[in-house]
Amino acid sequence: MTTAKMHADELAIDAEFVSKLVAAQFPAWASLAISPVQSAGTDNALFRLGDGMVVRLPKIHWAVDYIIKEFDWLTAHGAILPLITPTPVAMGVANENFPWPWAIYGWISGANPTAESLTDWNAVAVQLAQFVVAMGSIEAPPVVPTNRGVALRHRNKFVQYSLGKLDGIVDVRAAQELWEYSLETPEWEGGNVWVHGDIKAGNLLESNGAISAVIDFGCLSLGDPACDLVVAWNMLPTSARNTFRLATGVDDATWLRGRGWALSIALIEIPYYRHTNPAMIAEAHHVISEVLNDFRHNTAPL
Fold first, then answer.
1. 44-49 β-sheet, strand order
2. Is residue 264 within 8 Å of 155, Cβ to Cβ?
3. How far apart are CA 213 and CA 105, in angstroms?
4. Which residue, among 160, 208, 263, 203, has the nearest Cα to 70 in the 3D structure?
5. What is the rounded distance in angstroms from the CA atom of residue 69 to the CA atom of residue 53?
6. Residue 151, SS3?
7. 95, 103, 178, 233: which sits with the fewest CB atoms below 10 Å from its CB?
8. Residue 187 per-residue DSSP state
């Protein structure tokens, strides 16, 4: 959880402001209570609207396209996925008070999963694998891969920059060795696949010891499905990792690219969010530890 400012040019958004925004564009909901939702997310501010809705507003310019893409995609495809996803309710428009579009979704009850709240990790691994497979089964347009669908080599300059900032903070030599190994893995040639792009505990909800919902589709992308395998290292314990792999049915190269994706995301996060998002940084260090341990024991395709 964080309320700290994470970007130099992010907008300050509070409940009073959101109340006025909702009242101006959706007067039927003007009387509903509005309260902030604490989150470790980086791109959007969340506010509960009454008992049944949540307002999602981009607080940084790069999140604007994400929120439009997310709203439209969930409207078209969200209901067919095997886990609950946010239900689009309404899209607010930019005006003189707020420069960007914003969205209202149905509220989903639940809490982010923890190691203590999940009761059967192998069952969780299967649930997550089924979601990944379902994402990949949705027909994708033949366009250029986007954001987290790109080949790992397109992330190299960002990873190298981050490694240059992390001496004494992480094991840079080991991370560099794993990254170079990942770059040598054969690239995806299977055409565009839909990926959620950011499957992790903070973007999942659980109920009764099992995963119940997947939220925050802002990183939704087209391209290499390896990106959605990162949950194997950012959330699943080693004991359930192979269950997840087998249930996804991915080949050796895709699995190894997934590990490379997990490493690259964690490395890039630490220099940028080190002093503003402690939850994200703790997760990033956990991921780096997990992937390096995995690499030590599995330096060749399994």
1. 34-36, 44-49, 53-58, 102-106, 88-92
2. yes
3. 14
4. 203
5. 19
6. coil
7. 95
8. P
Residue 94 phi/psi, 5-degree rounding, is -65, 145
* Count of C-beta atoms within a 10 Å radius of residue 100: 19
- 3-class secondary structure, 77: helix
pLDDT digits (tens, 9 = 90+) for 278-297: 889 999 999 999 999 999 98
Q: Would you call 275 exposed, middle or buried from its count of C-beta atoms within 10 A (0-12, 13-18, 19+)?
A: exposed
Kind and range of the H or E run holding 291: helix 278-297
- pLDDT score of 125 more than 90: yes
Q: What single letter denotes the amino acid at residue 166?
A: L
Total residue length of the chain: 302
Spatial distance between the Cα atoms of 302 and 296, rounded to a whole number of angstroms = 13
Structure tokens at 22: 């909702």
* Tokens encoding 246: 């087998």
Which backbone phi and psi does 65 adopt, to 5 degrees? Answer: -60, -35
Cα angle, residue 151 at apex, residues 149 and 153 outer, rounded to 5°: 140
Reported as a pLDDT band with limits 50, 70 and 90, residue 42 is confident
Residue-wise pLDDT for 265-279, tens only, equals 999 999 988 888 888
CA distance linking residue 267 with residue 270, whole number of Å = 6
